TrEMBL record:
This is Pyridoxine/pyridoxamine 5'-phosphate oxidase. Residues 532-653 form the Pyridoxamine 5'-phosphate oxidase N-terminal domain. Residues 1-25, 437-490 are annotated as: Disordered. It is an enzyme of class 1 (oxidoreductase). Residues 16-25 have a biased composition (Low complexity).
Length: 710
């Protein structure tokens, strides 16, 4: 059987069809060089297609506001090999705050809560992401800037290679341009945004697909006169919201102005009209301190001076079909969810991955691939459209009373014991949208993938060698050297296991921040605080811990058990003296404890000498616990060899009966241990891997604090 691999090198099902096949598209024209277009070009090139990207702008557009990469989009970015680039270019936002009319901060929260980001989610400037995608594809993809499509004419199969055909011999699309000469392609993709030119040419006027969400938004650059450092400031008046922020590595700031309005008449290519609408919406706001943020007039002036001014409605694109013949739409052109959703960029990356994967295995022409692409994406899009509708309403408040209430809730949230649960709830809806699709590993046609950076000449794209006979020979028993083992049946399971490990996420919740400058002089109060916060965040059994001990020869062992107390003497736990840990502590009375609370991304490590409490204190510890704990202690014989599960059942039944009838039953071997800390380390995880590690070490009668590199 011929073996195929996906672009990440994973085995896939056989029977896929190569782009050199007569019924699969070979040449693809993509309109739009923002995010969706170059992302699709990346995947199509890796699958062996010849790709051209045409862009109306004279050069790559590197402006725009910050965009989120969440959930499934993070996985796609990792499979593309650009996740590390995104992390390096992260906005690294630290806080978000609401300000009053004078600009005074009245409520501040971590930026991750504002952005509803968890785990590996990240945020990047749109222009930086566009640059990353362009640099990754420019050597392998033809880019044509400063031109635009003027007509699309699909040519039917004429059963001969000649004028009007795509390179697959089954027809093609004849394309004319504003400046360039006409060309023919097997497939045309509209990845040209909410005001898609390809959609207009292939499906009709934009108006029939747009649903206005009742608001408009503007974004632009401006001087960072407020001296912001990775911080965003918000100000609200009824029906309007303004924001200024700065991001890592950018000396300038960005401004955002949002206002509620029914649908307005204007041309999206006429900035003067858009600026007039913006002026009218914010007329009088901030002119005097009692009438709004005094920065608003400056923001309006900056919008007029900016060379990256953006203005558009918050609107959805809703279509019954995203394809017609050999023309298909991608990203905002197909299903814009508006900036209100915060998911547009992620949907573009995911859609590009899905569409390219389906085209790579299309056995009956592109229509079948388009159908599967839509089927896989529709549910994901629907969830995020619903998010956009909700958030578009929430972005602006109707009354000053609503604004004051919002400020009050934000101001008290950091001091509430349930603040982590609130943060988690805030993120839940967004995360549901970000993860509303299950990504499949896409199979690739045999022989189409080259190592990164190795360029294949254009003629090689058209005639790829068929390696199936060679591989079949290699896989045959006769081809194995004498004495070589046969392929084990569990190889697939091992590969699936590795894929599972690589796909598992960490810290898929909003993580709290930790400022070590606020830490107490001794570790015990901080430990108690962190354990309480872990419990409030919903961590199951936050008092469970790992205990590491070693035998006389220094061989380590580890197990999980429960913390019984933590006081000025140390950390308390208990067990039988005859258990393995009891025997090891008898010969080496030192140990280490580890606590891990994933919901808040925190760990605590404690190490030091261990002492044994007296019999009375040990008995009191046991009898303060549950009936089940007493029954387990009465069974005893911990770590000894067990003859059968039936033997355990009989002993347990007798122990339960005695524990119920004799709640003070003695267990002489039960021992309470106290670990006196010499070193305690507190670890606060960070989604950007900038973890905070605070180490306490007891030296010369006092605690010393040190920060450690992650």
């Amino acid at each position: 059987m011929q073996e195929h691999h996906d672009p990440e090198g994973n085995p896939a099902m056989s029977g896929t069809v190569s782009p050199s096949s007569r019924t699969s598209p070979r040449t693809v024209l993509i309109s739009g060089a923002s995010i969706a277009g170059p992302a699709l070009a990346h995947w199509l090139h890796r699958y062996g297609f010849a790709v051209t990207v045409v862009e109306r702008a004279p050069e790559l557009r590197t402006g725009g506001y910050k965009v989120d990469i969440r959930g499934a989009a993070v996985e796609v970015a990792e499979r593309m090999g650009i996740l590390a680039d995104i992390q390096r270019a992260s906005t690294d936002m630290r806080t978000g705050a609401y300000v009053n009319d004078d600009g005074k901060r009245i409520a501040t929260l971590p930026a991750a809560i504002f952005g509803a980001r968890v785990g590996r989610d990240d945020e990047i400037m749109r222009g930086d992401l566009a640059r990353i995608l362009f640099e990754r594809t420019r050597a392998d993809v033809e880019y044509v800037f400063g031109d635009s499509i003027t007509s699309l004419t699909e040519r039917a199969d004429e059963h001969e290679h000649g004028h009007g055909h795509g390179s697959d011999g089954t027809g093609g699309v004849e394309v004319t341009f504003e400046r360039g000469a006409p060309r023919r392609f097997d497939l045309v993709v509209g990845a040209d945004g909410v005001h898609s030119n390809v959609r207009r040419l292939a499906f009709g006027p934009e108006e029939q697909f747009v649903r206005h969400l009742g608001a408009y938004i503007s974004a632009f650059s401006l001087p960072n006169d407020l001296g912001l450092d990775r911080e965003e400031l918000y100000h609200a008046v009824p029906g309007r919201l303004s924001c200024v922020y700065s991001s890592a590595g950018d000396p300038a700031a960005k401004g955002l102005l949002t206002f509620r309005s029914p649908r307005l008449a204007y041309d999206h290519r006429q900035p003067d009209r858009q600026l007039a609408l913006l002026d009218a919406a914010f007329k009088g706001v901030g002119v005097r301190p009692s009438e709004g943020w005094t920065q608003i007039p400056r923001l309006l002036e900056a919008a007029r001076a900016a060379d990256d001014f953006y203005f558009d409605g918050l609107q959805l694109i809703e279509m019954d079909r995203w394809s017609r013949g050999r023309v298909v739409l991608l990203g905002d052109a197909a299903h814009c969810a508006s900036p209100a959703s915060g998911q547009g960029t992620g949907m573009a990356l995911v859609g590009a991955y899905v569409l390219a994967g389906e085209l790579a295995v299309a056995g009956r022409g592109p229509e079948e691939a388009f159908d599967r692409y839509e089927k896989e994406m529709r549910g994901y899009v629907a969830v995020n459209h619903a998010l956009a509708e909700k958030f578009a309403k929430d972005m602006t408040a109707d009354t000053r009373r609503q604004i004051r209430f919002r400020h009050l809730m934000m101001r008290i949230l950091p001091y509430m014991p349930w603040k982590n649960l609130v943060a988690k709830k805030i993120a839940e809806e967004v995360q549901r949208g970000a993860n509303a699709i299950t990504l499949r590993h896409r199979s690739r046609p045999a022989g189409t993938l080259r190592p990164p950076g190795v360029l294949r000449p254009p003629e090689a794209r058209r005639t790829l060698p068929d390696m199936s006979d060679h591989r079949a020979h290699q896989d045959s028993p006769d081809a194995r050297p004498a004495g070589a083992p046969a392929q084990h049946a569990d190889d697939a399971d091992a590969q699936a296991f590795r894929e599972l490990l690589h796909g598992l996420r960490v810290w898929d919740v909003a993580l709290p921040s930790f400022d070590p400058a606020t830490a107490p002089a001794e570790p015990l109060p901080l430990f108690r605080q962190w354990l309480r916060e872990a419990a409030e965040a919903g961590v199951p059994e936050p008092h469970t811990m790992t205990l590491a001990t070693a035998d006389e020869a220094g061989n380590p062992s580890v197990r999980t058990l429960m913390l019984h107390d933590a006081d000025e003497r140390g950390w308390h736990f208990a067990s039988h003296r005859g258990s393995r840990k009891g025997r090891e502590l008898a010969v080496r009375p030192r140990a280490a404890l580890g606590f891990y609370w994933p919901a808040v991304g925190r760990q605590v490590r404690v190490s030091g000498p261990v002492t044994v409490a007296g019999p009375e204190e040990s008995a009191a510890d046991l009898h303060h616990r549950s009936t089940g704990a007493l029954a387990a202690a009465l069974v005893g014989r911990q770590s000894e060899v067990l003859g059968s599960v039936e033997e355990l059942a009989r002993a347990s039944e007798a122990a339960w009966e005695r524990a119920r009838s004799e709640p003070a039953a003695p267990v002489p071997s039960w021992t309470l241990y106290v670990l006196r800390p010499e070193e305690v380390e507190f670890f606060q995880g960070d989604a950007q891997r900038r973890h905070v590690r605070l180490n306490y070490r007891y030296e010369n009668g006092r605690w010393r604090q040190d920060l450690l590199w992650p």
